Structures are given as C-alpha cells and as structure tokens.
Amino acid sequence: MTSESHALHADAGDHAHDAASHGSLKSYLIGFGLSVVLTAIPFWLVMTDALGDKQVTALIVLLFAAVQIVVHMIYFLHMNTRSENGWTMLALIFTVIMVAIALTGSLWVMHHLNVNMMPMHDMSQMP
Fold first, then answer.
1. What's the pTM value of the predicted model, to 2 decimals?
2. Are 87 and 54 in contact (CB under 8 A)?
C-alpha cells in the first residue's frame, strides 16, 4: 500500500460510524422490555380504572409517555451527549423548546378566545 492509500483510508475512518454508538442486542432487548412495560402499565390503569380518578390516571399516563420517549431516545435512537459532538442533543433541546413554545402559545390563545368570545349571559332569559 502506498502512503496515499493510507491517507485515504485514514480519512474514511474518520467519517465512519462508531460501532459502539449503534447498540447491541442486549441494549435493544432492554429498550424493548422497558417499552412493553411502559405501555402495559398505563393500559392496565385505564382498562381497569384502578385509580378511580380520571385526572390522576391521565396524569400518570402522560408521565409514563414522557418516560417512554426518553427510553426510545436512549435505546433506539442512541442519543447521548457524546454522539456527533453533542449536536444531536442540542438539536433535541432546541426542538423541545420550540414545541413547548408552540403548545403553550396555542393553549394560551385558545383559552383567551374561549374566555373573551363566548357569550356569558344566562340562556334562560332569552325569549
């Protein structure tokens, strides 16, 4: 091999994917197991009405959903602070902030439209 072919091979190695970042069968099985459990528990809570209070059940289901999102990001999307020099995590943080701004802004506008645009007078006084 010539020195030129060594240089080309070294450049290709710099851009190759890191095998450790793709996960192993064990990590995929752990992620799958956690996903199944994090789906089955809320399903059971809703189907059996185990808690009795619908608002508490909804809050717990949302909590399980948030945990499941984190499990998917770690075990299936392989997101961490080390991959791609932290750019994937920075993109995730930016996306979460933008979604939070869009959701809270939409809810705020809808609430104020509901309060300010709906008639508040008593319907029994109408002819």
1. 0.61
2. no
